[in-house]
Design goal:
By secondary structure, the chain is of the alpha/beta class. 53% of the residues lie in helices and 20% in strands. It binds ligand C2E and magnesium ion (3 copies). This is EAL domain-containing protein.
């Protein structure tokens, strides 16, 4: 009868919720110890000049090596964000980035830039700007080699706060990219007042290319008018690359060129002198 079905559904629902909550609690508890247990690592995905194939920089993407598995940031970043653990995790990412940049300058004599993702809670946290300035100083990194990536959505969370923070980052010399651009609802008139250097066209609009190109065209035009660098993310094939090339996009990132790579592999393939010769 209906009552029995209803109560069955309820208990099924309750069981599901309990499992979800349990997974979440476990994730949360393990995340707390992940830094101290050395379970995080960074992968680097190259950004290339799509006309010359030359490396222009890379993006640092965090991975969590936990109990023998590599856990995607899509799974744990939201939990880290909600619990606030994102703040120390984000600090760890910035510090590792500075360490790598410092090593690369000494070893490979390169001025490759690294883009770091900063989540909205980390962006809002008062420690971000003093932390990043202190790290750049300590590792002797020119701030222009570090590009902060903030999603369009988190910028729009609190636009006044965002403008204030971005101004501070800019005056300290850091690069600023708006990530996943086109997926949020930013007002174009605000965009003009944000001291940003780069727009990253969200993968969703790159995957529509070449046929469905209205959004990508609009972003490229906007970028040109505002004198911003445009990076197309998630390029997966030659047709997408061809369209971007002939429509004025200069920088590309995506599986078509390379997946995010473990640090040693990235260094071997993109920074070691021999590989640079082979590539050009
Ligand atoms: P995102 O910043 O937009 O990074 C791009 C994501 O797209 C990466 O996924 C990358 O591996 C993936 N990708 C790149 N090229 C392609 C392609 O051609 N095809 C497809 N299908 N995917 C491609 P990943 O590494 O899993 O990261 C997912 C998201 O997690 C990132 O999106 C970013 O929002 C967040 N994230 C990653 N690392 C960090 C971090 O250190 N801090 C914070 N706060 N968030 C991070
Ligand atoms: Mg990003
Ligand atoms: Mg993105
Ligand atoms: Mg994204």
């Amino acid at each position: 009868n209906a009552k029995a079905i209803g109560s069955n559904q309820w208990s099924f629902f309750k069981q599901q919720m309990t499992e979800k909550a349990a997974v979440r609690l476990r994730t949360e508890a393990s995340l707390h110890d992940a830094i101290i247990n050395n379970e995080f690592l960074l992968h680097f995905q190259p950004k290339l000049d799509i006309h010359t194939g030359e490396l222009v920089g890379c993006e640092a993407l965090i991975r969590w090596q936990h109990e023998g598995r590599l856990i995607s940031p899509m799974t744990f970043i939201p939990v880290a964000e909600e619990t606030g653990i994102i703040v120390p995790i984000g600090r760890w990412v910035l510090e590792q980035t500075c360490k790598s940049l410092s090593k690369w300058q000494k070893l490979y004599n390169t001025s490759t830039t690294v883009a770091c993702n900063v989540s909205s809670k980390q962006f809002a946290d008062a420690s971000l700007i003093p932390d990043i300035k202190r790290m750049a100083m300590r590792y002797q990194i020119d701030p222009s080699l570090i590009e902060i990536e903030i999603t369009e959505t988190s910028l729009m969370d609190d636009i006044d706060l965002a403008i204030n923070k971005l101004k501070q980052l800019k005056s300290a010399g850091f690069g600023i990219a708006v990530d996943d651009f086109g997926t949020g609802y930013s007002s174009l008139s605000y965009l003009r007042h944000l001291p940003i250097t780069t727009l990253k066209i969200d993968r969703a609009f790159v995957s529509d290319l070449p046929h469905d190109n209205a959004i990508a065209s609009t972003i490229l035009t906007l970028g040109k008018q505002l004198h911003l660098n445009i990076v197309a993310e998630g390029i997966e094939n030659e047709q997408q690359e061809r369209w971007l090339k002939s429509n004025g996009c200069v920088i590309g990132q995506g599986f078509y060129y390379s997946k995010p790579l473990p640090i040693e592999e990235f260094e071997q393939l993109y920074l070691a002198p021999r590989s640079r010769q082979v590539q050009s």
